[in-house]
Each structure stands twice: as C-alpha cells, then as structure tokens.
Amino acid sequence: MAEKLSTDRLLLNPLDINDIDFIYELVNLPDWIRFIGNRNVNSKDDAKAYIKKIVGSASTQYWVVRLKGEQKALGIVTFIKRDYLEHHDIGFGFLPQSRNKGYAYEATTAVLAHVRKEASHTLILATAIKENISSIRLLEKLGFQFEKEILIQDKHLQLFSTAADLKFG
Predict the structure, then answer these.
(1) In the chain, what is the straight-line distance between the N-terminal and C-terminal CA atoms, in Å?
(2) Taking every annotated instance into account, which residue ranges of this chain make up the domain N-acetyltransferase (predicted)?
(3) Would you say residue 65 lies in a domain?
C-alpha cells in the first residue's frame, strides 16, 4: 500500500474509498480516455468498485495529490507493476484546472524519490502514446529517456525508462 508523502506545496495520500467523486471525474475526462483509456467508470458505484480493485492489489500504488490545507484533489500519481512490463511503471493524471502549475512534476518527483528507496526498483518505466506531448515532455523533465515503441492491446506506446539511482533537482 502507498504511504503518505508530501512536498513543499502538496500532500500525496493513498487512494481510498473517499475519493469516489474525484476518480469518477478524472477517469471520465476526454483526455484521460484518449491518452490512458476508458476505464468504464460510468457511475459513482463503478468508481467505488474501481477504487476497491486498485487498493486491493499489491501491484498498484495510487497517490491522490492535493494542495496542503485543501481538500480538493488535483490529480493522481501511480506506480504499477504491469504484466507486460519487466519493471514498475509510473504514471500521472491531473484535472485540467491543475495543469501547467508544476504539480505533476512536484508530485511525481516525490513518488520517484520514495520508490527509489527500495533496492528492487533498479529501473523505472513509463509509457505514453505518441500524441500525448505534454506527458512526454514531463517524463523527459523527470529524467526519463525514450527506449522504444511497444504494441500493447492494439495501442502503440512509447516506452521510457530512468535508472533508479538518478538524482534530479
């Protein structure tokens, strides 16, 4: 299970059942569906089931990102061991009003610093579709380098990686 994390501006709490409204909004954004995929969360009950599935899995860690002192969720950072990847994959998604403010970089940097403490994470991966330019730019800013294109479930994904011992500022 994910641990609570914080930065100068942000609190990152593990996803829990109280995040139903946020998850429902996030996974139904047109760009989430376009760039990440349709999670078939069509109701609040679906959102609740989706969260239960996530928090019940040992291979997934989700952090909900909020500004310190505020309750409204801004976005999410994920760290997942996917069947089709050799190493864990980091991802992020933020609500439109929370983009271009440095929150995704700050939150993802905190998660990377946290997961790099485990010796088993020698390499960290990330994927994005080629058209998701803003995510690719953020991955590059975080120190990820393009490795290759992979085909997963009829989707062409750009695979990026970063060494677990990479330091950034």
Answers:
(1) 27
(2) 10-164
(3) yes
Distance between CA 120 and CA 118 in Å, rounded?
Answer: 5
- Pick from 2, 27, 22, 23: nearest CA to 12: 2
pLDDT for res 35 = 93
Residue closest to 88 by CA, chosen among 50, 115, 70: 115
| Distinct helix (H) and strand (E) counts, the chain | 5, 8
**Residue appearing with tokens 């952090």:** 63
Mean model confidence pLDDT for the chain: 92
User: What is the domain-level CATH number for residue 43?
Assistant: 3.40.630.30
Q: For residues 156-163, give the mean pLDDT.
A: 94
Q: Is residue 59 part of a domain?
A: yes
Helices (H), 4-155: 20-27, 30-35, 44-55, 103-115, 133-141
CA angle 6/113/2 to nearest 5° reads: 60
How many domains would you assign to the chain?
1
Is the pTM here over 0.90, yes or no?
yes
Q: φ, ψ for residue 101 (rounded to 5)?
A: -125, 5
Q: Is residue 168 part of a domain?
A: no
Report the sign of the C-alpha dihedral through residues 133, 37, 45, 48, in that order. Answer: negative
